Amino acid sequence: MDRFGTIVFEDLNITNMQKNHHLAKSIADVAWNQFITITESKTEEAGSCVILVNPRNTSQQCSRCVV
Length: 67
Description:
By secondary structure, this protein is of the alpha+beta class. The chain has helices spanning 14-17, 24-30, 32-45, and strands at residues 6-10, 49-53. Helix content is 37%, strand content 15%. It has three helices and two strands. It has one domain. It has a two-stranded parallel sheet with strand order 1-2.
């Protein structure tokens, strides 16, 4: 069953994000780099692909969030 052809992640600079002492532990806890690496491996086995995109302008507010 081919449900997902491509998975897209923001290409975040994890090293720089961990320099923020307020976020460092949370970022390390989720093991973001490891998650992407495992996902890339699994998608390759399944014949799909992972694409890393520039995170610039990827965050948007939904219409319900706008006051």
